[in-house]
């Protein structure tokens, strides 16, 4: 019981970092491309409180499946239409991948220079937090690229193939809850392979720095 509570506490920073950087990236790129909606809504910040959805946050702690507060954008504000929208959409997952890589480097440097390799209670906690930040962000990167309604992967396909996905998007959104419920209750095992490949790359980054 104690270990479960500790695990929940340690995973909170990873979730906050993952969700915050993901949504901030959407907002920042949209703002850079001419849409000031995220700016007016206070989303151009790294303050987690501006990006966290309370229910989605609680759900990810309980069911390991949750969501952040989506960044609202006005596509008509973009000069290059779907091309700019595509950049905004892909910015979120790429931010998670970048966070995972950056924290892999931080992990490697911290270990190499003896900040986290003396095996005290504090350093063990720091190691767990760093590990969780990397794992959560890799999972967010892979999961958000799924071509499912409500995820960035679906938005990317909508931008690339507007005619085809325009015809089926309404039907898919109708079953959105059912799809995510299936994933939440054990249907996400197919993500283990791509997630494992990226985590292996992160491990190689860490080991390459330590060596």
Automatic annotation (TrEMBL):
<keyword id="KW-1133">Transmembrane helix</keyword>
<dbReference type="InterPro" id="IPR044537">
    <property type="entry name" value="Rip2-like"/>
</dbReference>
<comment type="similarity">
    <text>Belongs to the peptidase M50B family.</text>
</comment>
<keyword id="KW-0479">Metal-binding</keyword>
<keyword id="KW-0472">Membrane</keyword>
<dbReference type="InterPro" id="IPR008915">
    <property type="entry name" value="Peptidase_M50"/>
</dbReference>
<dbReference type="GO" id="GO:0008237">
    <property type="term" value="F:metallopeptidase activity"/>
</dbReference>
<keyword id="KW-0862">Zinc</keyword>
<keyword id="KW-0482">Metalloprotease</keyword>
<dbReference type="GO" id="GO:0005886">
    <property type="term" value="C:plasma membrane"/>
</dbReference>
<dbReference type="GO" id="GO:0006508">
    <property type="term" value="P:proteolysis"/>
</dbReference>
<keyword id="KW-0645">Protease</keyword>
<dbReference type="Pfam" id="PF02163">
    <property type="entry name" value="Peptidase_M50"/>
</dbReference>
<feature type="transmembrane region" description="Helical">
    <location>
        <begin position="172"/>
        <end position="191"/>
    </location>
</feature>
<protein>
    <submittedName>
        <fullName>Metalloprotease</fullName>
    </submittedName>
</protein>
<feature type="transmembrane region" description="Helical">
    <location>
        <begin position="88"/>
        <end position="113"/>
    </location>
</feature>
<feature type="domain" description="Peptidase M50">
    <location>
        <begin position="12"/>
        <end position="171"/>
    </location>
</feature>
<keyword id="KW-1003">Cell membrane</keyword>
<keyword id="KW-0378">Hydrolase</keyword>
<dbReference type="GO" id="GO:0046872">
    <property type="term" value="F:metal ion binding"/>
</dbReference>
<feature type="transmembrane region" description="Helical">
    <location>
        <begin position="125"/>
        <end position="151"/>
    </location>
</feature>
<dbReference type="InterPro" id="IPR052348">
    <property type="entry name" value="Metallopeptidase_M50B"/>
</dbReference>
<keyword id="KW-0812">Transmembrane</keyword>
């Amino acid at each position: 019981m104690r270990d479960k509570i500790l695990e929940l506490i340690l995973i909170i920073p990873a979730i906050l970092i993952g969700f915050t950087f993901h949504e901030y990236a959407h907002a920042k790129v949209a703002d850079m491309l001419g849409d000031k909606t995220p700016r007016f809504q206070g989303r151009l910040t790294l303050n987690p409180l501006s990006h966290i959805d309370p229910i989605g946050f609680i759900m990810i702690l309980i069911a390991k499946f949750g969501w952040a507060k989506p960044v609202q954008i006005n596509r008509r504000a973009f000069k290059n239409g779907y091309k700019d929208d595509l950049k905004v959409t892909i910015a979120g997952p790429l931010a998670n991948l970048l966070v995972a890589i950056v924290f892999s480097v931080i992990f490697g440097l911290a270990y190499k220079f003896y900040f986290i390799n003396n095996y005290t209670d504090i350093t063990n906690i720091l190691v767990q937090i760093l590990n969780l930040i990397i794992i959560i962000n890799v999972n967010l990167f892979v999961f958000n690229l799924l071509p499912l309604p409500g995820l960035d992967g679906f938005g990317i396909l909508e931008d690339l193939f507007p005619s085809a996905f325009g015809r089926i998007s309404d039907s898919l959104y109708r079953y959105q809850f059912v799809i995510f419920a299936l994933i939440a209750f054990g249907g996400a095992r197919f993500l283990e392979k791509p997630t494992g490949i990226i985590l292996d790359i992160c491990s190689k980054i860490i080991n390459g720095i330590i060596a």
